[in-house]
Amino acid sequence: MDGSSGYGIEDKKLLYTRNSGKTWDVEVPDGISEQDHLIEADFQNPSLGFAYFMTGKGQILITHPIQDGGGFPTGWETALLPTSEAWEASSDITVHSNANYFDASYALLTSSPALGQMAKTLYKTTDRGKSWVRVGDITDKISGYPTGISFRVSQEGWITATYHGQESFPLFRTQDGGETWNVQQVDIPDEFKDGYANTLPPVFDMENNNHGLFIAEFVKDENKAYVLYESHDSGDSWVPIPYRLKDVQAPPVFHFNGLIEGRAISTDGKTIYTMDTYNKEDWRPIHSSMDLEGAAQFFLRSDGYGWVLINGHTMITQDGGKTWSEPE
To answer: Residues 248-282: pLDDT tens digits?
Structure first.
């Protein structure tokens, strides 16, 4: 969501709210029929992102909102993804995308992990989603199960993954637009060197794209902790930030807004944690008057406004998470 507007997913339908989640309407984009079912939707905000639909013939349609010169929505633009593999027509596929309005955008398709083998294909658009081309099959280049994809610039990006028996840290980098991928070496904190890690895709500063962050989830001896990695050299090297969080709900509840503001909720739902990376501050606790255990989505701005999706309902806060109420 952005302010009072935003998208959601339910029962393979795309939903839209104009009142901070109090009510939702089914959104059927231009070029999409009511028989097509939604696979995935990935939006940075209500005007930037893609929704992926599967047709009855096993084709994948990618659609995105378009605007006029003043930034007002004028409809949707829909294109056909040029799939060619039989598994890409399955209802069990997963889509990870990287939407960039001013640069190339990418879509990563993965199959279900049958017998431990997950197929992966990569697609790209350079005309803001009007048309897509197949970059290639990257199954053998990316080990583990992907958690996401992100690109700093059109040719340089990352795919992150979960641990699946591989020896390497699951951070894969391309510098030629997805044609080749290499494992990127990073320092692992001493307390986790005998454990394993799951990673989430890096996010880079929109105004200064040499600064980036990504989250690693380390697991060792049934203990789990989230470690934030930071780069100031365009992702060439990554340094773990010393501040640690344990006993918090997993991403996307645990997240960073704009690379500056860290947000998390404890596993018991009683405490919210916030931090500011630019000021090098440690995590600060906030007591919540509402039990936030089992949250599905969470967002909190620096001015105190935020929302949480919990038990199928959206709740709003105006005071940094101390108190919560239904949207007015």
So the answer is: 999 889 988 766 788 999 999 999 999 887 777 88
Over residues 324-328, the mean pLDDT reads: 89
* Under 8 Å between Cβ of 40 and 51: yes
Contacts of 207 (CB under 8 A, 6+ apart): none
- Cα torsion 178, 180, 186, 192 to 10°: value is 90
Pairing outcome for strands 156-162 and 145-153 = antiparallel
- Sort strands 37-45 and 25-26 into parallel, antiparallel or unpaired: unpaired
Task: Name residue 76's amino acid.
Answer: W
Task: State the chain's maximal CA–CA distance in angstroms.
Answer: 55
Distance CA 218, CA 231 (A): 19
Question: What does DSSP assign to residue 269?
Answer: S
Contact 178, 187 (CB under 8 A): no
CA nearest to 172, candidates 188, 190, 163, 185: 185
Cα–Cα distance list, 291 to 138, 286, 301, 312 (Å): 43, 13, 20, 14
| Number of neighbouring beta carbons within 10 Å of residue 91 | 10
pTM of the model: 0.90
* Helices (runs of H) and strands (runs of E) counted in the chain: 0, 27
Work out the angle at residue 35's Cα, subtended by the Cα atoms of residues 29 and 36, and round it to the nearest 5 degrees: 55
**DSSP code, position 2:** B
- Cβ–Cβ < 8 Å for 287, 303: no
